Amino acid sequence: MSGLDKKNILPAIKAAVLGNRWGGQSLISLYISLVSGIILALQYDAGEAFYSTATIELIVPYGSFWRGLHYYSSQFFFLLLLGHVLTILWKQEDLIPRKSWIRLCSSLPAALLLLFTGYVLRGDATGEAAGAIAENLCLSIPLIGEWINDLFFDIQDSGLRKVYMHHLIGLVAMGAYALWPHLKRYPALWRNHVFLILGTIMIAVFLATPSEPDKIGLLHIAGPWFFLGLQELLRYMPAFVAGVLLPLLPMVLLYLLPGDVCKRKGYIWGIGLWLLVYGIISIVSYVRIATS
């Protein structure tokens, strides 16, 4: 490929990435997730999580489709939201006022917790592993760890009922509060995202939703895909460092992102480096689990 072709291709790729409607696509995926989630909630029992999830697929009319639609639209929502945030940083646009910026950025941890609690509520091997790790991480936090665990998880004593209520109400309300000023300014229209909607429906029809019963005898059980790097870090570091401080680092950098363009580049490079390293560690964790 000639140097001229490269000069033409790279700007074209950048224009395509920056011109993509990441935010609107993320919102449409969220709407699909909410609608399908309400339908599933009518059939779900947090007291019998795995049995309830299996029953939805086997007995409820089109249950496997609705579960698949909820699962894949939720994945797309988080990935597209992450793409939206990274695109904003790439554009190097002027930031909104600090208070509004922090409120808006809080939608990212709310989305991540929504996705995470969805895995826990499956009640399968992956969900149990994720829930157990989450409880241990909360309890590793000095002074307030037990209070945080009682508020958000408390799985050993209360089962999945608290997780279910936060997934159904608390985290949705938190995300809505964080995004509301942004939604009023940048509404998403269904007609502008027909291909995304149809693609999500087709994937839900033809791809089975993951579900893993107890895997007796395995040395390692994988948590959610975005949790793999954290699981690997826990092998080498204390729980509080690996599971709390290091994951909070990119969010702190995002919250504190300065308005000065020159200083902002350093923070953005820090976030990008963290994502790169975490991605590599996640791959290492996946290989370890796949070969165990």
Helix/strand layout:
Blueprint: H1 3-19, H2 22-41, H3 49-58, H4 63-91, H5 98-105, H6 107-120, H7 125-139, H8 145-152, H9 155-158, H10 161-185, H11 194-206, H12 228-233, H13 239-255, H14 261-290
Helix pairs in contact: 2-4, 3-4, 4-6, 4-11, 6-7, 6-10, 7-8, 13-14
User: How much strand?
Assistant: under 5%
Number of strands: 0
Strand and helix order: HHHHHHHHHHHHHH
Number of helices: 14
How would you describe the shape?
globular
Given helix and strand content, the structural type is mainly alpha
Radius of gyration: 20 Å
* Average residue-wise pLDDT: 84
Characteristic key phrases:
about 290 residues, mainly alpha
Structure description:
The chain is an all-alpha fold and 292 residues long. The chain has 14 helices and no strands. The chain has helices spanning 3-19, 22-41, 49-58, 63-91, 98-105, 107-120, 125-139, 145-152, 155-158, 161-185, 194-206, 228-233, 239-255, 261-290. Helix 4 packs antiparallel against helix 6 and helix 13 (239-255) packs antiparallel against helix 14. The radius of gyration is 20 Å and the shape is globular. The N and C termini lie far apart (42 Å). The model has no long low-confidence stretch (mean pLDDT 84).
Give a summary of the structure in a few sentences.
The chain is an all-alpha fold. The chain has helices at residues 3-19, 22-41, 49-58, 63-91, 98-105, 107-120, 125-139, 145-152, 155-158, 161-185, 194-206, 228-233, 239-255, 261-290.
